[in-house]
Write a structure and sequence with these properties.
CATH superfamily: q2cbj1_9rhob like domain
Largest sheet: 8 strands, antiparallel
Structural class: alpha+beta
Number of helices: 5
Helix content: 10-25%
Shape: globular
CATH architecture: Sandwich
Radius of gyration: 17 Å
Strand content: 25-35%
Number of strands: 14
CATH topology: Jelly Rolls
Number of domains: 1
Length: 246
């Protein structure tokens, strides 16, 4: 596995995804992809200041705050679905799978903006080039990992897949921390890569059927710190659902 040079166009993104199952997209290209001004994307960072505690952490940690929405992207247009629980099979999340986790919805002041829809629809357009499915069952997760207790764990479940078709991990902010290294591995092989997302609105795209991923713990650097991300998952055929898993 090798990190290719920064991509410059949509064709570069789709080519990388087809060839290796992942692609690192720099912030200016993310803005081009979603047809938005980078400053408009950066202006969304304040919405991560009002996330609520994740009360489902099995280790009783206080390090993760989040909000969650479900959407359907069909024929290039995203529409918000009635609020629903987030659910994963234990096959994909051995730590927190098998339970319905109801998180607070994303603030309508964010989810109702045009740039938010451009973002979700723009990312979906990449996957439309890779797969015939034109309807994507999409989940949006706002995360803040903090260092209030010294260490924050972005992926307490360890290296994992999400049980979807594609995943987009977008760095929103990184403040006063060390650590938080992203690690990706081939599902069918021993090769892997490690790197750190540092520039806000850099995006990592993953083919969830081919790539396993995790992020190492963070520690505060000169006081309390945090790492904010937006994770978007895209799945064909329906949302993950406990009834469908039976």
């Amino acid at each position: 596995m090798h990190l290719h040079p920064p991509v410059e166009s949509l064709s570069d993104v789709t080519q990388a995804m087809k060839a290796q199952g992942f692609c690192l997209v720099p912030a200016p290209v993310v803005a081009q992809l979603v047809q938005a001004d980078l400053k408009d994307l950066q202006s969304l960072a304040g919405f991560w200041n009002a996330l609520l505690a994740d009360t489902f952490l099995k280790d009783q940690g206080r390090y993760r705050q989040r909000r969650h929405d479900s959407l359907v992207v069909e024929k290039g247009h995203a529409r918000l679905m009635p609020h629903r629980a987030h659910w994963q099979s234990v096959d994909y999340n051995a730590l927190h799978g098998g339970i319905e986790r109801m998180f607070e919805p994303i603030d309508p002041a964010l989810s109702g903006t045009s740039v938010w829809h451009q973002l979700i629809e723009g990312v979906a357009s990449v996957f439309n080039e890779l797969q015939a499915a034109q309807t994507w069952y999409t989940e949006a997760h706002q995360f803040r990992i903090n260092t209030v207790d010294g260490i924050g764990r972005p992926t307490p479940e360890g290296a994992h897949r999400d049980g979807v078709d594609y995943v987009a991990v977008i760095l929103v902010s990184r403040q006063n921390i060390k650590g938080g290294e992203t690690r990706i591995f081939e599902l069918s092989g021993n090769e892997g890569l490690r790197f750190t997302l540092k520039e806000p609105w850099t995006m990592l795209l993953l083919d969830d059927r081919r790539i396993v991923h995790e992020t190492t713990p963070i520690q505060g650097h000169q006081g309390l710190g945090h790492r904010d991300t937006l994770v978007l998952t895209y799945r064909s055929g329906g949302f993950q659902d406990p009834l469908k898993a039976l």
